[in-house]
Amino acid sequence: MALLRAAVAAVVLLDLGIRSTDLEAFYSNMGVLPLSVLYEHLWNPYVFSLHTSSGLWQVEAVLFLLAAVAAVALLLGYKTRVATFISWLLLVSLQNRNPLILQGGDDLLRMLLFWGFFLPWGRVYSLDARKRPAPAQLSYFSAATVAYIVQICLVYWCTALLKSSPEWSRDGTALYYALSLDQVLLPGGRLIYPYPELLRFLTLATYRLELLLPFVLFIPVAVPWWRMLFVFVMYGFHLGISLTLFVGLFFLINMASVLGLLPASAMDWLEKHIVPRAQQLGPRVATRLAPLQPRLATWRQAVQVRIHTSWAVSEGLRRWLRTLREGLVAGLLVYICWWNLDSIVTPQWMMKAPLRWIGFLTRVDQHWGMFAPSVFKDDGWYILDGTTKDGRHVDLNRHGAALTYAKPASVVSLFKNDRWRKYSENYLFVDNSYMRPYYCNYLLRIWHENPANPPLQQLDVIYMKEVSQPDYKVPPPKPELLCGCAP
Fold first, then answer.
1. Beta 478-485 vs 378-388: how paired, if at all?
2. For the chain, which residues score pLDDT lower than 70?
């Protein structure tokens, strides 16, 4: 659990770092989703967001900094429970600010922090642990550990059950269609794309892996062996995804999520090979801290006295709070399982609307429909056709190069990061047509802020649509004008 805590904190920091490069674009009123548009088209009255307190990117930067401080504290295990809560609070707030750039990995990261609040993942390998005696035993069982394991299983079970198209379970063509999407295709995917039989095998193997492998976590015999198998296979599975498909932090979040399943033997190996090296730094640190030792000893003695005098009084309260916590976690786990079932089973099992506010408020709502029920077939790339005042056409998506309708060698390279790729995917849907003028005008403003760029009199957002076909057929792309704007 300590490794899980550190990995989750590291991913949160990485996520904040990537998002911080688009503070104005995604989180301010000067970007693609002003607060007025968010409230009009996307807002749920049951959610909350501290990031909607202002439309200024400077305010967003302060909130990002606070989130980074909390994530560092979580990484080090300092005030772990408080750091976990603040990290979860600010992550939920950030995700609610712009739902147009979210993907399945964001749901999982949010849930790892949520369940982590109820786990003792700061009990060892943390700054908090230095102030407490070592635990009598390192094994731990509670409603929260059950919820954590079930949550991991739900990710893969629901992903498989939602893949109801024959291309996943019968035809084995899903991976072929996924790798036909140039907007997510990476070099590793290009290597295996020409081999249809290999793609069919990998498709069927993926479907069965997601559906069946989580069951090994409930086998009551040889538990360490089965858990190591699960972690090993999941790491190979997500490493393969990261080499073939452009999925942002999705693979890292999933790889971090299973670290809490590692058995004691794995931790023994890590302690044997890693901890001794870290301990070599101990004498240097001790020398520098030597002048502070008397003061620290006095403070430690005072703390121990306070702990011993208050222990007898608080023990009964602790038991009562522990029972209350176990009941709360069990109830939330049942609710989350029900929520996931709602997306799979027939309508008569559907969760009634009045009960959904709990999921939206706590953001335990989740949906694991990755490439489900079938793979998206509408592929293509964007052309940002800018018309200069002297009549020339330049493509803003290629840094002002002369306009061409030729397909780029790498469509993925047109996206700054996976957040922009997800935004461009949502930009296509007719239901999201309200997004289009804001994106167009944002691009115009950014372009004209650089005095080296020639002034534009018109900007057209064009999508070169290329629908994926079976048997490696490639239809000619059809340009679709999505939006036009002028200064």
1. unpaired
2. 274-313, 346-350
408-465 pLDDT, tens digit per residue, is: 999 999 999 999 999 999 999 999 999 999 999 999 999 999 999 999 999 999 999 9
So what's the pLDDT on residue 138? 81
Query: Which conformational region is residue 348 in: left (phi greater than 0), alpha (psi within -120 to 50 degrees), or beta?
Result: alpha
Q: What is the pLDDT of residue 311?
A: 46
In this structure, are residues 364 and 332 in contact, taking their beta carbons and an 8 Å threshold?
yes
| Token code pair at residue 395 | 């493509």
Q: Looking at this protein, which amino acid is placed at residue 193?
A: Y
Angle at 12 between CA 416 and CA 83, to 5 degrees: 155
Q: 291 exposed, middle or buried (CB, 10 Å; 0-12, 13-18, 19+)?
A: exposed
How far is the C-alpha of 112 from the C-alpha of 108, rounded, in Å? 6
Lookup: tokens for 361: 């408020």
DSSP code, position 464:
E
Q: How far apart are CA 245 and CA 181, in angstroms?
A: 9
Query: Starting from the edge strand earliest in sequence, which strands make up the sheet with 456-467, in order?
Result: 401-402, 393-395, 378-388, 456-467, 478-485
Does 283 sit behind a cis peptide bond, omega within 30 degrees of 0 on the bond before it? no
Which helix (H) or strand (E) segment holds residue 393: the answer is: strand 393-395
- Residues 176-206, buried b or exposed e (16+ Cβ, 10 A)? bbbbbbbbbbbebbeebbeeeeebbebbbeb
The tokens 């930067």 sit on which residue? 61
- Cα separation values, 481 from 25, 301, 402, 484, 485, Å: 22, 72, 18, 8, 11
- The two three-digit tokens of residue 130, written as one number: 């230095």
> Is residue 77 within 8 Å of residue 127, measured between CB atoms?
yes
pLDDT for the residue numbered 315: 75
Look up residue 280 and give its two tokens. Answer: 């070599």
Phi, psi of 448 (to 5 degrees): -80, -15
DSSP 363: T
pTM for the whole thing? 0.89
pLDDT at position 134: 82
d(CA 156, CA 214): 7
Distance (Å, whole) CA 296 – CA 290? 10
Task: Calculate ∠ Cα 198-204-205, nearest 5°.
Answer: 85
Q: In this structure, what token pair is assigned to residue 388?
A: 């200069």
**Quick count: other Cβ atoms within 10 Å of Cβ 302?**
10
The pLDDT assigned to 379 comes to 93
